[in-house]
């Protein structure tokens, strides 16, 4: 079966996010002063071949831990959908 994994990776809340601060500052310079806090992360989509949804979750979790996420600085979550 084919599954699609949608992975969201964000900097840990305890750490500074210089890219987010730069975007926030730029938004304020554009007159969008209602924006209070910006955090910039990544969204990754994987097509996963697996026997079932649980196997697809295991593969996705392993990919995140071994390659996609720097767990010292980032957190992640993901959803798996069939297709």
Could you give a short account of the major beta sheet? 3 strands, antiparallel
Uncertain spans, ≥5 residues at pLDDT below 50?
A: none
Structure classification: alpha+beta
CATH class identity: Alpha Beta
Mean pLDDT: 97
Count up the helices: 2
Which CATH architecture is right?
Answer: 2-Layer Sandwich
Number of domains: 1
Task: Please describe what this structure looks like.
The chain is built from two helices and three strands; from the N terminus they run E-H-E-H-E. It has 83 residues and is α+β, with helices and mostly antiparallel strands. It has a single domain, classed as Phosphoribosylformylglycinamidine synthase subunit PurS (Mth169, Chain: A), CATH 3.30.1280. The protein has a three-stranded antiparallel β-sheet, with helices on one face. It is elongated and about 50 Å long. It starts with a strand and ends with a strand.
SSE arrangement:
Blueprint: E1 2-11, H1 18-29, E2 42-49, H2 53-68, E3 74-82
Antiparallel strand pairs: 1-2, 1-3
Features:
about 80 residues, alpha+beta, Mth169, Chain: A, three-stranded antiparallel β-sheet, 2 helices, about 35% helix, elongated
Question: In a nutshell, what does this entry contain?
Answer:
The protein is an alpha+beta fold. It has helices spanning 18-29, 53-68, and strands at 2-11, 42-49, 74-82. The protein has a single domain (2-82), classed as Mth169, Chain: A (2-Layer Sandwich).
């Amino acid at each position: 079966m084919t599954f699609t994994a949608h992975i969201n990776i964000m900097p840990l809340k305890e750490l500074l996010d210089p890219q987010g601060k730069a975007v926030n500052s730029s938004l304020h310079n554009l007159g969008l002063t209602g924006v209070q806090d910006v955090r910039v992360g990544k969204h990754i989509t994987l097509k996963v071949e697996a026997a079932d949804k649980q196997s697809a979750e295991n593969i996705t979790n392993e990919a995140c831990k071994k390659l996609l996420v720097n767990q010292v600085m980032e957190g992640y979550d993901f959803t798996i959908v069939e297709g």
